[in-house]
Amino acid sequence: MSAVSVVLGVPLYGDGEHLQEALESLLAQTHPAMALVLCDDGPGEDARRIIDAVVGDDPSVAYRRNDGRAGLVENWRRTFELAGELHPGAAYFGWASDHDACHPRWLERLVDALERAPAAVVAYGRTYQFDADRHVVREVDRFETAGLTDPEVRLARTLRGVRAGDMVYGVYRREPLARAGALRRLLLPDRLLLAELSVRGEFLYVPHALRYRRITGRATLARQRASLFGESTPAYTRLPWWAVHTAAFAWAITHGETAAKAGMPQRLRLIATHARQNFLFAMHSRIGRVIDWLSLRVRGGLARAASLLRRG
Amino acid sequence: MGARDELSSRVASLRDSRAFSNYQRVRDEVLQMLDTSSDAVEGAPSAYWTHELQNFEYMLDASPLIVENLRHHTFHLTGIRTYEYRPHRADEARRQLQAKLRMLVELEGDALLVPESPALGGFGHDIDGALYNTDTLKYFEVLIALERGAVLDEIRAPGRKLVWEIGAGWGGFAYQFKRLFPDVTYVIVDLPELFLFSATYLMTLFPDATVRFGNGSDESDDWEDADFVFVPARASNALHGIRPNLTLNMVSFQEMTTEQVDAYARLAWELECPFIYSLNRDRSRWNPELESVREVLARYYWVHEVPLLELPYTRFPELKQLALPQRAVRWMLSTLGRDDSQFDYRHVVGWRRAST
Questions:
Q1: What is the pLDDT of residues A144-155, one digit of tens each?
Q2: How far apart are CA A270 and CA B110, in angstroms?
Q3: CB A134 to CB B153 under 8 A?
Q4: Can you give the pTM of this predicted structure?
Q5: How far is CA A39 from the centre of its chain?
Q6: Pairing between strand B301-305 and B345-352?
Q7: H-helix or E-strand containing B101?
Q8: Distance CA A69, CA B315 (A)
Q9: B30 in a domain, yes or no?
Q10: In total, how many domains does chain B have?
C-alpha cells in the first residue's frame, strides 16, 4: 500500500445494526491510499463483533474503544486525533458514519476534486436521505461556495444555505480542519465547524461522489443534548445555540491563524455577518418547526378519522 | 407494371436487404437455440411469457415486408403501437411527451439523449426534427438514473467495458447505450424468440458491429471484442468467465419468479459485477410468484434508490392545471390512501456486497 494520504474516521455508537453495510462501503472505496480509524463509544460489544467479521486483519484499519461513554462530540474529536497520531502525513480527513453508505468511488472523487481546487477546504457529494424501508425521502440541496473569494460572502452564504448534518460527512483538508478545532463542544457543532471553515476556504460539491444517509429520527436540540456530551451535558447548552455559536465564532477568529491573517475591521464584519445570519436562520428554523408540527397534527387527525371511518 | 409485379419487385428487393439478411441469420440462430434444452431456472418462460410468445410466433417466418417495419411489431413486447404516434392524434400526446422530455433534460442536460432511429419503421412524435416515443424517454430516464447513480463514469473509464442486460426486449436500450458508449461489449440474455427483434434490430442499426450468439458453456473466450452477444436465458451459464462492469434489468424482474431473480442476481454477484441496475416494481399485482425485487437483489447487492421524477416512466405530466378543490381532494386521498409504494417503478442501483 502507498503512503496513506486520506483517513476516514468512523465514530461508532450503538448496536451496529447497519455497521456491516457502512463498513463494506468504506472498505470498497477505490482510493488507493486510504486508511480507516474506528472509535467505538459502546455501549456493547456488537460493533466489535461486526468489525472482526467484516474487516478481518486488514492493516489499513485501526480500532479503538473508549473506556467509558464519551458522547458523540468527544468521540468525533478522538477519531480525528487518532487519525492524526496514526497517519500524521495524511493530507485529508473525513468522518464517515456507522450507518450510512458511500459509493465505491465516493472518496476518490472527493479527493480528486480537492486536489484540483487548492482554495477548497472541504468537498462533499450528492447525498440522498433514505428511510427504514430504504426509500429515498429526499435529495439534499446542493450547496457550494466554489469560486467565491470573499470570506464574508462565503460565510453569509454558508450560514444561509449549508446542510451541516450532511455536509459534515465530506472530505476535508486536514490542516484547516485542525485549526478550526475539529468539532467544538456545543450544540449543532457541525454547523459551527462549517461556518468557521467557510472563512478559511471554499466548499466543493461533487455530484458523482454519491452518498446515502440513513434517517433515523428528527434532529432536535433535545436529542443533541442527550447524545452529544456523554454523561454530563454542559449548562451552556441551555442558552440559545445561535448566540453561543456567534460567541464561539468571535473567539475563534480573534485568536490564532485567522486573526493573524485578517485585520480587525474584517474580523468585526465577519462576526456581525455571523450574528445576523445565524439569528435569521434560527428564527426561520423555529417557524419551520411550528409549521411541521401543525402539518403533522393535521395529517395525524386525518389518518385517525380515516381509520375510524374504515372501522365503522 | 401492375400491383402484383410491383409487390414482387419490392419484396425481391427487400429480400436482398441487409435487414432481411440479418433476420435470416438471427432466425437460424434462434431455431438452433430452441433445439437446445436446459434445466436452468432462468431459461423457462413464465406463464405470462409462454402466452406472449404465441402472439408473435409469426416472427419465426417473417416476410421481408415485416422486417422492413420491424419496430411496428415490437408492440408485442412493449404495448406501444405506431398508431398512437400518428400525426392526426398527436397534439395533446405530443405536448405531454415534449413536457416530460423537457423535465428529463432539466435533470441532467441532453448529453445522454438518443432519439429513436427512423430505421426499420422507427416511430415517434417529431420534436425538433427527431423521433421520440415512450420507450425513448424511458431509456433516457434510465441513463439519467445511471448517471446520477454514479455508474456511467465506470463505463467512461478507459478500457473495454462489458454490459450485461437481462431481458432486452426489442433492443432499444442497447441501441441507445451503444450509441453513447461504442467501446462496450453488450451482452443480452433473453428468451431466444426475442432475439428475432433485438438481434435483427441491432445488427441492422450497427452494420459494422461484431456479433456473437452464445448457446452453450465455455463460449465466452472471444466475447471481449464483440459489440453484441446474444445468449439464450437457458444458457446463461455461458456467461461464466466474463466480468461485467454493469448488469441491467428493466421491467422484467417483476415478471419473473423469486427463484429466477435470485438466480440472475447471484450470477451477477458470482461474476463479480460491481453494479446491478433495476427499473422494476418491487411487486407486480399480477405476479404472485415474486416476493420483492429489491429484497431479492439485496441478498447480493446493497440496493440504493435513485429518485428522478415523481412520474413513473409510463405516465406523462398533466398539462392542465387542476383547480384548487381537485388538488385538495388528491392531497387528502394520498394522505388517507393505502400504501401502494411496492407497486411503484423504482430506479435502483445495487453495489456488490463483499459476502452473501
A1: 999 999 999 999
A2: 42
A3: no
A4: 0.90
A5: 16
A6: antiparallel
A7: helix B91-108
A8: 53
A9: yes
A10: 1
